[in-house]
Design a protein that fits this description.
11 strands; about 220 residues; alpha+beta
């Protein structure tokens, strides 16, 4: 009925909104439809794409057509916590609220939650992240998206997010705070600060996963 495949005998009387196959097929199509950001800047080794909004809890929001918003975790948070085993977003149809801890992340027996950058109804999720969360670290602003939301009060939500210069200023302050934590636990760093490698929590376990999550995810 949607014209995406030639023929399939439907055993569900074409009731697509309640069909598991349809939701799975839509999710797979949406994954492939993601547009890769064309302009990505570097802030002391961490990537930030132009035109994306950022929440203080390091979740990003990219505006799409109409009221739809795609959501993910930024490069800073993913490199901070290391390759994740799983990223579990709310299920399709669930209502989320800006600032609420809606997305769960896991690495081994360690768990943390990420706040939603906008309010609305979840319309799509990235199914690959539920079992292989590390995929998000490879392409955090494209194929590593977490969920897609039908935003209910987008204009008001955007007032509480950062973009362009605000994002750069915020990320610089976060990196300064991270360097201070590292020097307090591991000793002085190079005078130029250097560029931190991925999996910061794994390479510097003395920083503490829970401590980093509380400090930077703010949950």
């Amino acid at each position: 009925m949607k014209g995406r495949i030639g023929f399939r005998l439907c055993t569900h009387d074409y009731q697509c909104p309640t069909c598991e196959f349809d939701q799975y097929f839509d999710a797979q199509h949406t994954v492939r439809a993601v547009v890769t950001p064309l302009d990505i800047s570097q802030i002391r080794g961490f990537k930030i794409p132009q035109g994306y909004y950022l929440h203080k809890g390091h979740a990003w929001a990219m505006l799409e057509e109409g009221p739809y918003v795609r959501i993910g975790m930024d490069d800073f948070s993913l490199r901070l916590l290391g390759p994740l085993d799983a990223i579990r977003s709310p299920l399709v149809g669930k209502r989320i609220k800006q600032g609420d801890p809606d997305t769960a992340v896991q690495k081994g027996n360690k768990r943390a939650v990420v706040m939603s950058p906008v309010s609305g109804i979840v319309t799509d999720i990235n199914p690959g992240l539920r079992d292989t969360g590390g995929l998000a670290a490879d392409h955090p602003y494209a194929a590593g998206w977490v969920m897609r939301v039908h935003a209910e009060n987008l204009r008001e939500d955007l007032k509480h997010l950062m973009i362009h210069g605000e994002t750069a200023d915020f990320l610089n302050k976060e990196i300064d705070t991270l360097y201070q934590l590292i020097e307090a636990e591991a000793g002085p760093m190079a005078t130029d600060g250097g560029v931190l490698a991925p999996d910061i929590s794994g390479n510097l376990p003395q920083l503490g996963w829970d401590r980093l999550a509380r400090q930077f995810l703010r949950t």
